[in-house]
């Protein structure tokens, strides 16, 4: 196996650290839309009446459902929790 140059090692390390640092932000941005897509497949147009909110707190999976004025809001800490809440 060829020796790894210092430049290659550093650039690979920086790229990996950057990717891992951005992963939670990317997950948070896509989680509600992924869960909303699941609801749309199952509920059709009625899925638009459900508001999803990602709240990544707590170690165990959780969700909470509230209804106000005909609008259903589901909070959860993962896309799976959001879809379970629905």
Automatic annotation (TrEMBL):
Pfam families: NAGLU_N (PF12971). The keyword Signal applies. Residues 1-28 form the signal peptide. Transmembrane segments: none annotated. Residues 34-85 form the Alpha-N-acetylglucosaminidase N-terminal domain. The keyword Hydrolase applies. Keywords: Hydrolase, Signal. It comes from the Bacteria. This is Alpha-N-acetylglucosaminidase N-terminal domain-containing protein. It comes from Asticcacaulis currens.
């Amino acid at each position: 196996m060829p020796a790894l140059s210092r430049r290659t090692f550093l650039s690979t390390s920086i790229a990996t650290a950057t990717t891992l640092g951005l992963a939670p932000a990317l997950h948070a941005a896509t989680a509600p839309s992924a869960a909303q897509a699941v609801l749309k497949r199952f509920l059709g147009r009625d899925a638009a009446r459900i508001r999803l909110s990602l709240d990544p707190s707590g170690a165990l999976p959780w969700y909470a459902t509230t209804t106000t004025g005909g609008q259903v809001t589901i909070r959860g800490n993962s896309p799976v929790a959001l879809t379970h809440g629905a």
